[in-house]
Structure formats: C-alpha cells, structure tokens
Inverse folding.
C-alpha cells in the first residue's frame, strides 16, 4: 500500500520520531520546518511500503550528521540533502529511485522527506536503526552486509565530500571529522543498495510507526485517555510488539557533560511509589540503560523513553530538568535488531556497557 | 628536453628539495626511500620539461599532506599516491597523462615520483610552489585560477576521500581535518588541468633545479670549494636568479611550539662578526622572515635557508639546535611568484606578518 506524506502528517511524525529518538536523535523541530517547506514547494512525498520496493530499484539512505544543538544555531539551507544525493549519483553513475531513512528516530525522520520532495522521489517506509543511534555504522544495513561507502557529504556552502572507506567504522570516523570541519552539521547519502537488498536489511514500517505514535498520543490527549495505555496498545499491534511502563517519578538529579562530542550523563528519577529505589538512566546521546539498584529494567537496543507524566510527550536529553514528573516507557525493538549480529553492532557492549542484552519483562 | 629521473638522482634531489623546503616541507628522507623503492621496482621516471607538455595532456598535481614528524612514525605503504590518483580518475572519468608536483620543496619532491613510477607516467619539471608552503591553497595553480577540486585523498588503509569544494581554502580546511583523522598523513591528488593550463600556471624547472642544487653542493664538497659561493653562482643561472648570504653565526636561542598543527617559533642567530645585532628568523613550518633589529633581511615568499656553516647542508626546523654554526641564504623566487595575485595568496599578509613584501638587496 502506497500512501503520501503530507504537511498534515508532520506533527505526528515529529512526535513519534522524538519518542523513537529515546532522548537523542535531535529534536525533529527544525527538520519539520525543512520538510514542511519542501512539501509545500514540491508536493507530498509517496511513502513506499518496504515489501513493495521493486528488486532493481536503486535505493540510498539519507540523513544528517552532527550535534543536534548546532542544527538550531546553524540552520541548514535545505539543499544539502539533495546536493549530497546529486553528488552520490554523479560519483556512482547511478540514478536514485527511492530514499530510505537512516534513522526514523529524531531529526533524521524528516531529512529524507526534504530530499525526496525536491526530487519527487518516494521515501521507503522503513529505516536502518528502528530508533536513533549516535553513529553511522549502527545501521541494520551495516549489520546485514551493505557497505556504507560511497558516502556523500554536503554542507550549506555547497561543498561536497565523497568517502570510499574500508568499513562503516572508518566512514563514521572520517565523516565525523568532516562534519566537525563543516561547522558541526552535514547531510549524508550512503548505503546504496538495490531494492531486493533493502527489503532484506531494513527495519520495516518505521516511518508509519512514527506517524502512528504521534497520532495515538494526539488522540489520547483529545479523548482524555491514558496516553501510556494507548501507546502500549498501539505497539502491541506492531512488530515492536511489547512496551512496558518501567517507572514513574520525579527527576531528582541530572548530570550531563559533553565528552568527545557526545552528550553523556545520568538522570536519576525518584519513584512516586514510596520505598522504591530510584531509577538511574545512563545517557550517551540516547538513553542506553535504565537501572533500579542492580536490576536492569531495560537496555539498548530496546527503547527507553522518558515521557512527560501528563501528556506522554517525549523529553529529549537536553530538555530534562530537575523536578519534571515523568513516565519511563520501555519498548522492545523488532527481531531484526535483536540478532547476535545486530547486538554486536549496537548492543550494550558497543556502548561500553558491562551488562548483557536481555529483553525486559 | 626530456630526461629520466633515476635512483642516482635521488640524493641530489633530496638535498635540493630540503633547501627549497626552507626549514619545512618535511624531511625528504622517507620520501627518498619510497621513490627509490618505486623506481627500482618500476623503472626510472621521465621528467618532462614544462614547455613541452602537450596542450591536451591531462595533468594532476600530487603530494602528501600532514605533519612531517608523523611521516617518520607512520611510514606510508607507498601505494597511497597511486590510490589517490586512481580514485581521482574514477571520479572524473579522465585519465592522467602526467603528474606535476604540488611543491618541489621537502618530501613532496619525492611523492610524485612514487605515483609516476608505479603508473609509468612522466613527471613535469615544475611545481605549484617553487619551494615549500604549509597549505594547499598556496599554489600558483590556485593563484592563476585552477580549481583545487576535485581533491582525492588516500590513506594507508586504502580509504579514499573525494572533495568538491567551493574554494581552495575550503579544500585545505577539509583535507586537513581528514588528514588528521587519517592519522596525520595522507596522499593527495588535486588541481586537475590540461597541459596548456599547466604551462601557464606553474613554476617551471623546479625538479631539475632541486637536483641541480644537490649536485652543486655535492661537487663543492668534493672539490673543497665554498658551497655558498657555488650556490649563489648556480642560482644566478636559473630563473630564481638572485641568492645572497644574509647572515652567518651561531644558533643562540630557539623557541618552538606546535600551534594548531603548525611548528611555530623563532630562532635567534648570533653573528660571528662582533657588534652585529642578532638575526631573528620567524618560523611557521617554513622560515617566514629574517629580521636584524627592525630591518627585514628577507621575507616570504623569498626563500630563507638555514645551512650548516661548513657543508651548506640545509637544516630543517626540527633539527635546529643551540650552538649550531650556520649560514643564512636568501633566494629570490621567480617572477610568477612575486605578482600581486601571488603575494595575496602566499605573501607576508597570508601568514599574518605585518611587513610588506620587498625583495632583499
């Protein structure tokens, strides 16, 4: 089933992408403005179901790299994603038929729409992260054997860079250095593959999932229903399946610092229920692990989402404040993200965590 | 007249290139080993006179980027220059007919030979700096309108990067960041142009000039002649024309530090002649200006060469030591490097010096 993403979908998409961002991924707000501008100018964007992508389609992945905070200070011209794509096409001699988002979480839910609208291309209803992750090798595309290279990088001055690297990790390392020199934000096109490959290596349905999350929260608010219950019900009908409320309380302590370009820290939440030990959530851009004493409540790659207690609005790491009343929702990622190969690339060990991955109860 | 560069030329080339390096440019020693290996494996390299380059020849410039000290610790595989060239060719769809050195001073006198031998291509007897400079936009190619882009960059792991930038300054900025992430050394291919353009924008004869400098010093040593007189005589027969001994003395003080990746400092030389004020030479990788009190003895882009007093062996900045007995030779650069356009790119102001350029007496 092919549907269209219109301007009317962008608020829901932004809310859902923020939840899938699990605290990181960049606030989708600026991305939403860019996507709205592009769709108003060029028309709505066809959203192509993953299982309907033709075998021979040329697919590329697209998104932004860089510190989310910089996106607000150094607003993109909006032409970077398209420029990166043109540069990728010129380098490879191939023509792109469809764009797949790198990550459906955070601002990168929006960037593919900007490129797709301008080029009147479809966006595939899928992504390579099923959430947000901080590094470009943390993609199911990489897990299941698609080379990241060639990687095209563009900045707002019209400079482009093309990487041909020996591994996705080298691509990340070089692209990060280039992005820093480009002023902290860049647009990337990478992981070129055919449609048959895209169907095999992608997390399906994540763009419509994000829109659905936004819609569920909006409806729950309108109908004065419990948004957490609504979310749990919604996820149970998707291939994410399982979501649980793993804690509720007040932000009692928040430590944050910037280390090697990451937003690193810990947030401590005092449960409303008396006598329960506090919940500590470790952050590296995204929320990585929720601990209660020694007990692991939930751990990466599963989603740990800190939501405002009343509205279930997702709270990004930089917007966490002392005294906020929050619910913590854990969401299980789909099976394609929980294989041993996937966990080797974006499981707890990839973030230096001492805990083994285990699903939450 | 076409001649061949053989293994027998490399010692003279290394000496001459070190002198043209004016303290920087990287010790040609590692480069010499690489060039020797390449020539022994693949045969000698034709050296093509600039005025004999056919109009339609596809020319590219080639050299290494990075901190010279790192070249010694992180020895290149020797395949980087060729890899950068193949990557440039694949990107542009053009085939290279001849290689022109970026800079005849320092290690970059040797790198083009490595690429040329492996590909059995001629090297053009010319370069874009007529000496050594620290940044890739400081090229006569750039001064006279050749775009630096596309720039191909390769490392010893086989990673390649292709830049398409809006200016040579952006290319320098991005290539420098990439080189740092590549571990501090990389090989570049850039400034693609046709033969007619190369004839217009290059400093002619600089590879044979470097070999000639080395030969003159070797001969002077063998015949126990004054090497400074021999050098001055030799330069008078070239388009550099003028060389002068601007000081002789003992290294009395040397301050050096690494700032933003540059070797920055000042060396103070106490003249042997009593009552003469000390000579201060300011360094930013290369020797930039020689001052005696308020008087400018010589200034960039003219060459300021610190030579061992007895042998006239060039001393690189990192090998300067307290107590060394030295001669300071100034060499005028050719007219193509002294135009207002050229001085805007690599004259005193480009290095933040307060002095206007004037030739020495």
């Amino acid at each position: 089933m092919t549907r269209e993403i219109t301007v009317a979908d962008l608020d829901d998409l932004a809310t859902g992408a923020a939840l899938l961002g699990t605290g990181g991924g960049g606030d989708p707000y600026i991305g939403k403005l860019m996507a709205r501008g592009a769709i108003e100018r060029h028309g709505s964007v066809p959203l192509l179901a993953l299982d309907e992508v033709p075998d021979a389609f040329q697919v590329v992945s697209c998104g932004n790299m860089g510190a989310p905070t910089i996106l607000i200070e150094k607003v993109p011209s909006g032409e970077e994603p398209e420029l990166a794509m043109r540069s990728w096409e010129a380098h490879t001699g191939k023509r792109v038929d469809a764009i797949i988002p790198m990550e459906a979480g955070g601002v990168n839910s929006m960037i593919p729409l900007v490129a797709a609208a301008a080029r009147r291309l479809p966006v595939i209803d899928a992504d390579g992260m099923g959430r947000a992750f901080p590094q470009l090798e943390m993609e199911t595309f990489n897990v299941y054997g698609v080379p990241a290279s060639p990687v095209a990088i563009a900045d707002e001055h019209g400079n482009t860079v093309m990487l041909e690297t020996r591994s996705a990790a080298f691509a990340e390392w070089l692209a990060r250095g280039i992005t820093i020199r480009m002023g902290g934000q860049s647009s990337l096109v990478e992981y070129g593959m055919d449609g048959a490959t895209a169907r095999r290596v992608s997390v399906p349905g994540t763009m419509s999932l994000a829109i659905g999350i936004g819609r569920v929260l909006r409806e729950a608010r309108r109908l004065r229903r419990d948004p957490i219950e609504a979310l749990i019900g919604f996820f149970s009908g998707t291939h994410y399946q399982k979501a649980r409320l793993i804690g509720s309380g007040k932000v009692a302590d928040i430590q944050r610092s910037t280390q090697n370009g990451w937003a690193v820290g810990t947030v401590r939440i005092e449960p409303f229920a008396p006598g329960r030990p506090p919940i500590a959530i470790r952050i590296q851009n995204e929320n990585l692990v929720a601990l209660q004493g020694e007990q692991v409540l939930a751990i990466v790659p599963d989603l740990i989402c800190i939501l405002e207690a009343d509205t279930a609005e997702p709270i990004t790491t930089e917007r966490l404040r002392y005294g906020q009343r929050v619910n913590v929702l854990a969401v299980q990622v789909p099976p394609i993200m929980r294989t041993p190969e996937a966990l080797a690339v974006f499981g707890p060990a990839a973030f230096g965590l001492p805990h083994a991955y285990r699903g939450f109860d």
User: Anything to note?
Assistant: Chain B touches chain A through 21 residues (CB under 8 Å). Residues 3-204 of chain B form a domain with the CV3147-like fold fold (CATH 3.40.1610.10).
